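Async update (no meeting this week)

Hi team, since we skipped the sync, here's where things stand on the single-chain job. The sequence we agreed to prioritize is pasted below, unchanged from the tracker. I ran it this morning and attached the output directly underneath so nobody has to dig for it. Comments welcome in thread, and please keep replies under the output.
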Amino acid sequence: METGFDFQEWAQLARQSPEAFEQKRRETIEAFIADSGAEQRRIGLSLQREIDYEIRRAGSPQQALSAISRMMWAQVAFLGEELEALGDSMREFESCATQGAERLALALQGDSAPHRRAG
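Output:
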């Protein structure tokens, strides 16, 4: 798959031949998805269907861009929430681990204390 992206080339193609642009866009996306692992391919195909739906539904390229941008920002917000939840879980885990380590240290200190014999 081609790794370089020349914006000017794509823009010129879009101006000169929207049909050729769309064909190249689809081929590039399909090749990218095909090069992905199974789970990423499944997610990519699903996401691309959503994007294509928004493009078809939009009345103009600007409206399509706006709809896709909203989709992107919704995902960014979701990822931010997930990251915050993960941070909270990590802090809780760290607190429990610290408490457990302290309890273990106290228990080990008690086991290592000299045992007194009843006399």
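Quick observations from my side:
The mean pLDDT is 90.
DSSP finds four helices and no strands in the chain.
Reply here if anything looks off.
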